[in-house]
Records
---
Amino acid sequence: MAVHVLTLMAWADDEPLKSEQVAESVNTNPVVIRRMLCELAESQLVVSQSGSMGGSKLARDPERITLLDIYQAVENRGVFSLHRHPPSRKCPVGVNIGSVLNDVLDEVDTAVERVLANITIKDVVSRLRPCVSDANGNGKRKQVARAQLVSVRN
Amino acid sequence: MAVHVLTLMAWADDEPLKSEQVAESVNTNPVVIRRMLCELAESQLVVSQSGSMGGSKLARDPERITLLDIYQAVENRGVFSLHRHPPSRKCPVGVNIGSVLNDVLDEVDTAVERVLANITIKDVVSRLRPCVSDANGNGKRKQVARAQLVSVRN
DNA sequence: CTAACTGTAACTATATTTGTTACAGACGAT
DNA sequence: ATCGTCTGTAACAAATATAGTTACAGTTAG
C-alpha cells in the first residue's frame, strides 16, 4: 500500500494529493492513508499540509526514494520472527536456538533489503507506464502466480 | 518453530521423539507440534509413527534438509503480500500497480529462498554446538538486536 | 487387551492489521 | 474574522491469522 501511495504521488508530479483521493485509488479509508502518510512523513519521504488546498506530496525526487526507504518507514519488524513464547531453558537446543536463528534472520533481512534498496519509486513508475499505455488494459505482461483474491468490493 | 523442531530431531540422532517431548522444548502444546509435524511429513522431511513407542524423526540426513525445504513445507505465502482489497480499477496506477509489485515480490522471495537454500539443519546444529558446550550459557556470541520478548511462561 | 502414541476436528484465545467514527487544530479564501 | 476544507490522532470495531486447548478415533508394541 505504501508503495502504491508514493507511486501515485510520483504520478501526480508535484501536485499535492488529498488523503481521500489516495484512498479512492487504494480502495480503502482515508484515515488508513493518513496514518500511513504520518509514518512516511516521519521518515521524510512525503510532506503534508493541513488546511484547505492541503494534501501530501513526495519530499524528494522519485528516483531518490527506494522501496527500502519505504519498507523501513512503515514496517518495524523483519520478515520472519522467532517463537511466540521463548523455548525451554532446560533444553540445550531450546536455550541456544534463538541466537542461531537470529543470525539467520539477519541474513534473510539483509538479502531482502538489498533487493528493495535497488528499486526506486521512479523505477516503479516506469515499469507501470507500459501497462497504462496499453489501451484495453490487457497487455502482454506475464500472468502472475501470486493470485490476488477477488473481493466483492470496488 | 519448525527449524527448532527439526533441529531437536537432528540432535536426537535417530531416536524418535514424541510430540510431548518436542512441545516441552519448544514450550508449547503437543498438538501444535503434531500439526506442524504433519506438514513436515507431507513434505517428506520427517517420518512419524503412531502407537506405543512411536514418535517422529528426520526422514533423511540433516545435511540434506535445508531451511528452504522447511520454509516451503510450513509456509504457504511469500514474505510480502499485496493490498487486502484490490485497488481501484478506475485509476491508471491502481489498475496496474499489482503486476508491477508482484514482480518485486518475486524478486524478494527469490532472494529469501537463496539464503534459506544455503543453510541446512546440520549447519544449525553445528552453529548450536559452541553455545551448548559453553558451560554457564553466557558465551561470547554477540548480543542480538532482535529482542525476544520475555514472557511469564516457562 | 491395554497403554501409549499420532492424526485431526472443533473450538477458544491472542495478536496484528485494517477499517470506522469522531473531533481538535491548521490553513487558505473570502 | 470566520468559514469550509484539509490533516493528525484517539478510540474503538471488525477482520484475519496464528497459537493454544480439549476431545477422541485410529494405530501399534508389548
---
Amino acid sequence: MRGATIAKVAQHAGVGVGTVSRVLNGSPAVSEPTRRRVLDSIAALDYRPNPVARALSTGRTMAVGVVAPFFTQPSVVERMRGASHALAGAGYQLVVFDVERPEQARERLGSRALGGRMDGVLFVSLAPTDAEATQLEAAHVPVVLIDRTHPRLPCITIDDAQGGRMAARHLLALGHRRLAFVGDLEDNGFGFESSARRREGFEEELAAAGISIAPSLRIQRPHGRAPAREAALPMLSAADPPTAVFASSDVQAIGVMEAAQAAGLTVPEELSVIGFDNVEAAEYTGLTTVAQPLEESGALGAELLLRALGGEAVAGRRMPLEIVDRGSTGPVRVDRDGALGTRAVQC
Amino acid sequence: MRGATIAKVAQHAGVGVGTVSRVLNGSPAVSEPTRRRVLDSIAALDYRPNPVARALSTGRTMAVGVVAPFFTQPSVVERMRGASHALAGAGYQLVVFDVERPEQARERLGSRALGGRMDGVLFVSLAPTDAEATQLEAAHVPVVLIDRTHPRLPCITIDDAQGGRMAARHLLALGHRRLAFVGDLEDNGFGFESSARRREGFEEELAAAGISIAPSLRIQRPHGRAPAREAALPMLSAADPPTAVFASSDVQAIGVMEAAQAAGLTVPEELSVIGFDNVEAAEYTGLTTVAQPLEESGALGAELLLRALGGEAVAGRRMPLEIVDRGSTGPVRVDRDGALGTRAVQC
DNA sequence: CTGAAAGCGCTTACAG
DNA sequence: CTGAAAGCGCTTACAG
C-alpha cells in the first residue's frame, strides 16, 4: 500500500476523481461544501498526490537540472547557494548533473539525463554543444548559462578581460614591474575560456604600460591548488622571482601563496598575490582578489530560468567586478639604491 | 513535437509498442531481425524513452534525494562528492534538498518533496523525525543516514566522543594544561549532537588527567567561522588565555586561528589549535585536526543505499578517526622558572 | 458545479 | 517471438 490514490479519495468523499483533482489544484469551480468534504477525505486518508503521475499528465516535472563541475570548482558551490534558494522557493526540485571530466559532458547531457525529465536547465561554467542546445530548444526546455556564453542562450557573465585589466592596474599602481601570471591550461577539454580572457586583459594592460611577462613567469597548468603550487615553487625559488603574481582564480592564488611560504617569501612584503573570483577561501586566507558576485549570479540565473519557465523571454546580464583588498598585495619593495627590490638584492 | 513516442517508433518499425518496449529493456524474447528493425527506427526517429512515463509505469523514479545542510556545512559538500559519483554510476539522479533552517526540515521532508518521487533518500548530518521515518518505511523508500543516528535506520557514523578524547590526549601530550573548547550551541534546532559528544569525550579525557575546563574557556556558539572568531577573541585577549584550544569543527577552529592572529598570538608557538573533520580548508590553513573520512562516508552511504534499493538488507558502519598534524599544535611554552607559559608571563 | 472519459507514454502479464 | 490491452495516477476538456 504505497499510500492513497486520487481514486480512493474520490470514493471516500463520494465524488469523482475530477472533483478531487480540482480541489487539489485550487480550481474555483468547486462548491464550498464539496471542497470541505474532499479536503476532509484527503486528511483522513493522508493522501498526497503522486508527482510522477502529475508530471506525466501535465508535461511539467517541476524539476530543474543544474549541470556543473561541482567538486572541482568551489565557485560552483557558492553559485548553487543562490540558485537553490530561488528554485526551492518556486517549488522546483534541483537535480544535479556533476561533470568532472570532459567526456562526461557528452554522455550525460544530450541523452537520457536531461531529455523529458527537466523543465529547465541551468549550466554553470559549462555550455551545451550546439547539438544539445538545438535539442533543448526543440523540446522547449528553457536554458540559462552562468559563467559561459552561447550565441542563442541567455547568459550571465562577467567581463573577464576587464577583470584582468583591473588586476594589472592594481599591481602597476603598487609599483610592480616584474609580474607573473598563473592560470589554467588554455586548451582544456571543457572549453573554459575565463582564464585565457583574464590573462589577455592582464597582459593588454601591462603592454599599455610597456611591460610584458617573461615566458618563464607565465605559468599554465590544470586547474587546482596543487598544480599551481608546484609550478610556482621553482619560479619563486629562482634567483630573480617576480615581485607580484596574478592568478586567474583564487584556488590557484592560494596555491601560489603556499609556494611563497615554501620558498620563504613573505606575502605581501616580498611577494604580492592577487586572485580572481572571491570564493570563501579567499576570505580566510586573506587573499586580495578580483571579486565577482558568485552567489548573486546563481540567484539571478535561477530567477531568469524561472521567468523563462513562466513563458517570458529573458535576456542575460553582465555582472560587475571589484577589487577586494585583503592585504596579500602591497607596494613593491625598493632597496636603498632605488632599484626594484628582488629577493636576491635584499638583506 | 516534444520528440518521438514509443507508439511512433512501433508504427515506423511495423511492430507493437510492447515489442519496442522489450528491445528498450533488453528482453531476450525478441528475434534478432525485429530487434534490428526496431533499433533502426529508434535511431531514425531519434527516440528517447520518456523517463517520467517509465517511472509511473514501473514505480521506480531512478532518483535519490539527498537531504542536507549543503551551504552551512562545508563537510557536506565533501561527502556529496563521494555520493554523487556512486549514484550517477548506477544511473540514479541526485535531487538535493537543502535544509538551512530548522523549520525547513519540517516543511520539506515529510511532505510532497520526498513522497512518491524518490526511490531512496540519503540524510546527511540530518535525521528524519520518527513520523517521517515511519512514513518512508511505509512507502518502502530505503533510507541511509550519514553523520546521524536513528534506531531503525542504517547509519554511517564516527565515534565523536572518541575523537574528543583523541584531541585531548594530543594536547595533553604536548604539555598543555590550560585548555579551551569552542563548539556549537548544544541546543540547536537541528538536533546536531556531534559537537556535544566531542566536547564530552574531550572533557572526559581531561578529567582523567585531573584537569577541567574553566567556564570562561568553554565557548558555545552557532556553527560558523565568524561566531567562533568573535567569541574567541576576548578569551584570547584576556590576561590569562589558554595555551591550547580544541574546536569541535574545522570551521570553528579556523575562526579561532583568525582570533589568535587578531589577538597577536602566534600559532602554534603561543597557542595550539586543533579542529575536527578535516575539511579541505584545514589543509590550506595548516590546521591540525581530528580527521574523519568525509568523501568516503558519502561514497559508502550511496553504496549502502544502492544495495538497499536492490533489495538487500544493509547495516551501517562506523568510520575510523585519526589525527592529522599540520603544525597548528605544538608543545606548551615553558618560561625560565618552569611555570607554564602564558602570554602574561612571557617576555 | 460535477462526473465520466480520454489521454499523458510507458511496462507487463495474457493470449496466441 | 509478438500484439492487443490493461494499468500506473494524475489532469482536463466535454457534456450536462
---
Amino acid sequence: MKQSQLFTKTLKEAPRDEKSPNAKLLIRAGFIDKLTAGVYSYLPLGLRVLKKIENIIREEINRISGQEVLLPALHPKKNWKITDRWQYKEMFKLKSREGKDFSLGWTHEEIVTPLVQNFVKSYKDLPVFVYQIQDKFRDELRVKSGLLRGVEFLMKDLYSFHRDEKDLNEYYEKVKKAYFQIFKRCGIGKQTFLTLASGGTFSKYSHEFQTLTPYGEDRIYLCPKCKLATNKEIMKEQNYRCQKCKSQKLEIKKAIEVGNIFKLKSKFSEAFNFKFKERDGKERLILMGCYGIGLGRLMGAIVEVHHDKNGIIWPDSVSPFQIHLLSLERSSRVEKISRKLYKDLQKGGVEVFYDDREDKSPAEKLIDADLIGLPMRMVVSERTLARGCVEIKKRNQKRGKLISISKVKKLI
RNA sequence: CGGGGCAUGGUGUAAUGGUUAACAUUCACGCUUUGGGAGCGUGCGAUUCCCGGUUCAAAUCCGGGUGCCCCGACCA
C-alpha cells in the first residue's frame, strides 16, 4: 500500500486525554481513533493488525476443532430471563419501538446454548466446539487505558459441549495449549502467564492468561523460581505462598488479563434443560466450557509490551505490513528505484507499506516509520544508491546495513 | 460507584477580570531545502465544553451540568 493514499495521518503529539502507552501510540500513529470513553474505531492500519490477530486466533482455534459462527449482538430478553441474568449490571438494555426488550450481548452463553441444543440430541453428536469473533458490550463503571478495557470490544468466545467431565477436562487442557500458542504467536509469549483465578459463580477455579505490563489493571503473584502465577483472590486462600514450592518470596506484578477460560459444567445446560441421550438410553445434562480472548485488549497489550520512546515495535506476526519502504528523497533516480522495489516486493508476496509521499522531508519519513513501527525498514536514498544499495534496518535494532539491490531481489 | 485532576482553532499550549483570544504545529499556496519533525513569506481555521449568575467588562470569578483522564472499588 502506498502511504500517500492512506487517509490517516500521524500526530506529532499525543492527545492530552490519553495516558497509557497503547492509546497514545496507536492514536498518534493513526491505528485507532477514540469516539468516546472505551469506544474506539479501528483505522486502516489498526484494522490490519486486528485482522492479523484474528487470523492467528482463528487458525489455532480451528486446529482444536472449533467451528466458527457469528451470533447476533442483539439479544431478546427471554433468553436472559431463563438464566435469570436479565438484571446483570453490566448489560446494556434497550427497547424496540413496540416496547420489546433487548440487550446488547456482553457474553453469549444464553444464545449459543439453545442454538446448539437445537441440533445436539445424542452422545453421537458430541463433543461440539463453537466459537465466534464478535463485538461485546459491557457497561463498565470505569474504562481504562485505551484498548485495555473498553465498553465495546471484539472478543473471540469459544463454547464447548461435552458428554462427561473427562472430555471437558481434556478439552480444557487443549484450549490452554492453544491459548499459549496464540499469545506466543502474537509476540507476548514471554510476558504472558497462566494464572489460577477463582471461578466466579461457576466453579472453584478458572484460569486467566495475564500479560505483564505496568498499565495492567490486575496484580498477579509470580514465583520467580517456578514461574507459577496466581491472582490475588486465590493467593489470599493460600496465605501468599507459591502453590508448588511453598516459597513466600513472590513478586507482585501488574498484568492485563488477555484471556480467560472457565469450566461452566452444567450451569447453562440445567437452565436450558439441555440434555442428550447416552448409549444406555438415559438422558444426561450436557457439560460446557467457555473460553474468551479480547482482541482489542490483546492488541493493546502487544503495544504495551513492544514499544520504545519513538513508537511501536510490532512483532512480525501482527504487523500491519512486513516492510516499510521509504523513498527518502525527491530525485528521479530514488523514486524510480523505489517504485520498482515496491512492485517487485509486492509481486514476491511481501506486504509492503510504501512511503511515496512527495511533500515529506526525509526526517519526517524516518520519524513516522519509527512511530508506526513496522518490523523492517528499507530506505532508498541518493546515499544508498551511490553504492548500488538500499538500507535495511530492523525496528528493534539501532543500526541498519546496506545491501545491494540485486540481493534484495534474491531475498524476495 | 467513592476520590482526584483537566476542558481554549484538527493537535499541543499561552493569556487569571480590561483592545480584534496569542504561539507552535497541522492544512492551502509560492520560493528554497532534502538522512532524524528544515527555512522564509502569504493565507484558511475558535460560539474559549454547555446552561445560568456576578460585573461597566468573563477564556478568566461563582453555581449547576456534561465530557475526558487518573487512583480505588467493581469486573465472566
---
Amino acid sequence: MTTPQQPAGDDAGSGARKNRLSREVVLAAALKLVDDEGLEALTMRRLGQALHRDPMGLYRYAANRAALLDGVTELVLDELAIFGDDPDWQGQLRRIAHDLRLLALRHPNVVPLLVTRPLSTPLGLRPLGTLRPLEQILGLLIDAGFAASDALHVYRAYYGFLYGHILNELQEFIVDPDENEALLRLGLHRLPSKEFPRLRALAHQLADYDGATELDEGITILLSGLSAHLAAPLIKSG
Amino acid sequence: MTTPQQPAGDDAGSGARKNRLSREVVLAAALKLVDDEGLEALTMRRLGQALHRDPMGLYRYAANRAALLDGVTELVLDELAIFGDDPDWQGQLRRIAHDLRLLALRHPNVVPLLVTRPLSTPLGLRPLGTLRPLEQILGLLIDAGFAASDALHVYRAYYGFLYGHILNELQEFIVDPDENEALLRLGLHRLPSKEFPRLRALAHQLADYDGATELDEGITILLSGLSAHLAAPLIKSG
DNA sequence: CCGGGAACGTCTACATTGTAGATATTAGGC
DNA sequence: GCCTAATATCTACAATGTAGACGTTCCCGG
C-alpha cells in the first residue's frame, strides 16, 4: 500500500507531521478553532499553525477566507439529520427544531455564520449542504399533502421562527447559570429605572430561561396556526 | 506658510470642512458608509476620510470599532417608532412588524449587525437604544392585560419570528426583479436535479416572493395561536 | 489682556490580517 | 538518471485596528 494516506498518528499533541490534507480535515480544524476560540480566531495563519502547515497551502482547499467560512457553516449544517420520508410531518418538524437548537448550542460561535452567510450569496449559488434541509423539508411537507407553494410558505414560517428563536436564546445564554442571575441583575441594575421598569422587574424570569420548552411551545403554536390557515392535512396520529 | 491646515477656506471639492464633530454625526456617516458600500467598507480610515478627519480622532466618539458597530445598530433601531400606549396591541404589533421589515429593507447591510451584535453582549449591558423596543413592547402587552412573564413569552415568540422572517426575506432578495428570476433560474439550474427536484420546481414561486404579505400572514398565525394558548385578552376591536 | 489647563486633532509606528507571486521541493513517467 | 507537473513553502505588500507622542484650539479665572 503506497497511498499517501499515512494513519501513523492523529494530530494529538505535537506529532502528526505529514498526513495528507483534505478539505474535510481543513474544515474540521477550522470548526474546532471557531468552537474553541471564536470566529475571529479563525485566521489563515492560526489555522495553518493548528494543522502544522504553511498558511498558504490552505488556499488549495478553500479559495479564500470567505469560502472557508462557507465551508464551516456547511460542515455544521451537515450535522443535522432530516428524514424526508417520515409520514408524521409535525413530529418530524418538531424534532428537527430541537435538533437544530441543540446544534446551535453546541456551536454557538458558528451561529452568526449560519444566519449571515446566506445573506451574501443568492439562493441558487449556495453550498449544496446549505440547501439540502430546504429540499428535504419541502419533500416532507409535499409528501404530507401540501401543495408545493404552500409547502414553501410553511417552510418559511417554520425556519423563520426557528432561526429567530435560536438568536433569541443565544442572546440570553450565559455560561455559568449561577453567575447568570448575578450578571443579569448587575446588568439590569445599570438601566435607568424610570425608562425600563418592566425589564428590571422581569430579572428573575429572564434568569431562568428554558429554551427547550420555549421552542416547543412556539412550534406548537405555529403548527396549529398553520394547520388552521392552510387547510393542511391534519394528520395528528396515523 | 506656518500651518499646513487653514480652516479659512472651504475644502476644494467636497465641502463641509470643520464643523464640530459629534457622536451622532460620526454614527450617521458610518451608517451611510455601510448602507452605500457594505459592512466591510466601514473602516476607521475610510470613515475618517468621509468626515475629512484623522481616523484617530474617531476614537473619541467610539472606543473601538466594535463600539462603532454597536452605535450603528443603535442608530438604526432608533428609526423604529413604538407607541407604548396603544390599546390595540395586536394592531400595534402588526404595524411594528411591518415597520421593522421596511427598516431592514432600507438598511440591508446593517441586518447582520442587528442579529449578531447582541450575541456578543449580555442583555443588561447592551446599548439602551437596543433595549428600548423590548421594554416598550413589554409595556404594550402588560397594559393589554398579559401577566408579566407571559408578556415575555409573547415578546420572544414575536421577535423571534420577526427576525427570522427578515433573515429569510433578505436571503431571497435580489435587487433587480427582472434579473431576479433569471438569476434564480440560473442558480437553481446548477443544482443536481436528482437531489433537488422540489427546489427546482419551485423556481417560479421563489422568484415572486412577496415579503409583506408573507410577514402579515405569519403574524396573523402567531397572534391567533398566542391568543388561544395564553388566555390573552381578545381585544379585537375597541 | 493673558496664560494655563483641558479638550480636541494629527502624525508616526507597529503588530496582524488576507493573499499575490516567486521559489523550493517532491512525485511520477521515460 | 533526467524532465515535467504538482505541491509545498517563503517572501512581500497593501490594508487593517489602535497605542502613544505631539500640536492646536478653546475656554475661563486672574
